[in-house]
Specification:
11% strand; two-stranded antiparallel sheet; alpha/beta
């Protein structure tokens, strides 16, 4: 923290296909591990949990491919955390997709259907469909995910995603230690859970003021 290079800010340009994603995936994995290794009960900051990195993309141009690669890294980091427990902290390593109401719902009440109100029901189902599109394959085993893999619980304000492959780490009916895929897809849940990595778009930041 005391290094003189901390005073220097550089803006780097790198062409498409130059390996930027791999570079910052490695950097994020390092920062997640380093932050948690430095955690102590007497620390001013809670380095065990909370947001470690925010990725800010231009508008809606976040590709499914990039999102999947980042999610795979998060899953790998979480499995290492569990294997080395409690070396890398007690809080799960997770990711949140904070990308705006046009892509994912902001609030869970947007997912409520009403038999008396067809318009509200249509809107709610459309929002649910937007959630199902955020994660197309299991980041651990690669099995395609369908809407049956997403368990939306409006009263508890949570979306749990499980894999349907019985040999997968994230299998829904796994005996013993059942694990959900560590991904948060609704703004309300992101605010409540403060995931390790937040994947965002610049328009979300523009909306803050």
């Amino acid at each position: 923290p005391e290094h003189e290079d901390r005073e220097v800010v550089d803006l780097l340009y790198f062409p498409t296909g130059g390996g930027k994603t791999e570079a910052y995936l490695g950097l994020m994995a390092f920062v997640i591990a380093n932050r948690r290794l430095r955690y102590s009960e007497t620390d001013e900051y809670n380095r065990d949990g909370g947001v470690t990195a925010i990725l800010r993309y231009t508008l809606r141009l976040l590709t499914t491919q990039q999102r999947d690669r980042i999610t795979k890294m998060i899953v790998a980091a979480e499995l290492i955390r569990q294997k080395e427990y409690p070396k890398y902290g007690k809080e799960p390593i997770s990711i949140g997709f904070w990308v705006g109401g046009g892509v994912t719902p902001n609030k869970f009440k947007e997912l409520e259907e009403d038999p008396e109100d067809p318009a509200k029901t249509r809107a709610a189902r459309s929002k649910k469909n937007s959630i199902y599109k955020q994660l197309l394959r299991c980041p651990f085993c690669g099995k395609p995910l369908t809407e049956e893999n997403f368990y939306i619980n409006i009263p508890t304000k949570s979306v749990s995603v499980y894999c349907s492959d019985d040999k997968c780490m994230f299998y829904r009916y796994k005996p013993g230690n059942k694990m959900r895929i560590p991904v948060y897809l609704v703004d309300e849940e992101i605010y409540a859970k403060c995931p390790t990595i937040i994947l965002s778009t610049v328009d979300k930041f523009a909306g803050l003021p």
